[in-house]
Specification:
Layout (H helix, E strand, L loop, with lengths): L3 E2 L4 E5 L2 H15 L3 E2 L2 E5 L2 H6 L3 H13 L1 E4 L9 H4 L9 H9 L2 E6 L16 E6 L8 E5 L3 E8 L5 E9 L4 E5 L4 H18 L3 E5 L7 H24 L3 E5 H10 L4 E5 L1 H15 L5 E6 L5 E5 L5 H8 L9 H18 L2 H19 L2 E2 L1 H6 L6 E2 L2 H16 L1
Parallel strand pairs: 1-3, 2-4, 2-5, 5-16, 7-14, 12-13, 12-14, 17-18
Antiparallel strand pairs: 6-7, 6-15, 8-11, 9-10, 15-16
Helix pairs in contact: 1-10, 1-14, 3-5, 6-7, 11-12, 12-14
């Protein structure tokens, strides 16, 4: 069988630990036998980030701007414990945060549903997609420790040099801490448009929630920008599509989500989306069954798994011990990127391959062949736990039949 040809490269961002191992196996077992894979490769492994002083992360984001579609492996965001382990000169920032800031995108995370894995919330019969604003707030914060007797103020200097001041707190009798957050109206507007466009693409309702009753300027600005853009640009399109835009307070949204059946896009500010995506993915069964795509207002896409580098399994792998690591979200990152590349380049064969790869993956699990995390929660009667590579080989057996 002739391999499927690509015309434009994907930007390939390699990663760390066990997901880096799986990354290569996925390419060797599931991709290169069928596709003449064209990628522009960037090594975002922590050792190479240290070697390049994190310039490789910036370069990969700029390459994504150039080519329009990227696929990223999970990476380490180092803490203090990682400094001596990797002999780091500094605690490098999250690659995801750097890439998101450069692309100014919105992260959409959606659970992958399979038979036998029942959500912990029984009413969730359809996926809930979390749309996370990927700019600002606590992720671009400035923070200080404050000594007793200090006075903290918020100061803004306009273009003419005029100062506006607001008292934050007078630390008369105690030490304390302060934190400054910011966001940009154009980034919030891009977030809103990305959510509304994604809603139209998926033909799903869009929910948005903040705490505007408490944060009457910061959060209320999010609410106002969303509403203005919806009313002026999307209301007629949503009505024609038979879908709706729904705003409520974040605490009310949480209560509504728990009682819902799913099947909508829940737009969240940066921190809310970070937390809620993990909650939603776990409630659906497994963090390793969660897709993630960063979509910029300029129509740039970066696909990845929504989980980390599976550190514990990697240490077992280094000892030569067998692991049973779930690679589904990483497989779906590749399939999502290939589908989008095929769509943009008008390559129906590449899009069809992405569909078949996902079908083969789900079929493998529903046939009862799965990794350890799914084995523990699957309700299937005839199920079998396999190791990391055996799972990929089982997928390939089904993929080969679909491709024949």
């Amino acid at each position: 069988m002739a391999k499927i040809q690509m015309t434009t490269p994907l930007v390939e961002m390699d990663g760390d630990e066990m997901t880096r191992v799986l990354w290569q196996w996925i390419k060797d077992i599931l991709l290169t036998p069928y596709v003449d894979l064209k990628t522009e490769y960037y090594d975002l492994g922590l050792e190479h980030r240290e070697k390049t002083k994190d310039q490789v992360t910036i370069d990969s984001a700029n390459a994504t701007k150039k080519y329009g579609v990227a696929v990223k492996c999970a990476t380490i965001t180092p803490n203090a414990a990682r400094m001596p382990e990797y002999n780091l000169s500094q605690m490098w920032k999250s690659p995801n945060g750097t890439i998101r800031a450069i692309l100014d995108g919105t992260v959409f995370r959606t659970p992958i549903l399979v038979k036998g894995v029942e959500p912990y919330i029984p009413t969730w019969t359809a996926p809930i997609t979390i749309a996370r604003h990927a700019y600002g707030d606590v992720y671009k914060n400035t923070e200080m420790k404050v000594k007793k007797g200090s006075k903290a103020e918020l100061v803004v200097t306009d273009a003419e040099g005029n100062e506006s001041r607001e008292l934050i707190f007078n630390f008369e009798d105690t030490d304390g801490i302060v934190q400054g957050l910011h966001n940009k109206n154009n980034s919030i507007a891009g977030f809103a448009r990305a959510c509304f466009n994604y809603g139209l693409d998926l033909h799903q309702d869009v929910w948005f929630a903040t705490k505007d009753t408490i944060s009457k300027k910061y959060d209320h600005t999010f609410k106002d920008i969303f509403q203005e853009i919806y009313d002026n640009e999307y209301k007629e399109k949503f009505e024609a599509a038979g879908i709706e835009y729904f705003y409520t307070l974040i605490d009310d949204a949480v209560a509504r989500v728990i009682r819902s059946h799913g099947g909508y896009i829940w737009a969240c500010k940066n921190y809310d989306g970070d937390v809620m995506s993990d909650m939603v993915s776990t409630a659906y069964g497994s963090l390793a069954m969660m897709t993630s795509v960063l979509v910029s207002p300029a129509g740039i896409y970066e696909y990845e798994a929504a989980h980390g580098t599976v550190q514990r399994h990697y240490y077992k792998y280094l000892k030569g011990e067998e692991t049973s690591t779930n690679s589904v979200a990483t497989i779906f990152a590749w399939s999502g990127a290939m589908r989008k590349r095929g769509e943009l380049d008008k390559l129906p064969e590449l899009m069809a391959f992405a569909d078949k790869l996902e079908r083969a993956t789900i079929q493998t699990i529903e046939d009862g062949i799965m990794t350890g995390d799914l084995y523990l929660i699957s309700k299937l009667e005839n199920k079998k736990k396999v190791n990391s590579k055996e799972f990929l080989e089982a997928i390939n057996e089904r993929l080969a039949k679909l491709m024949a």
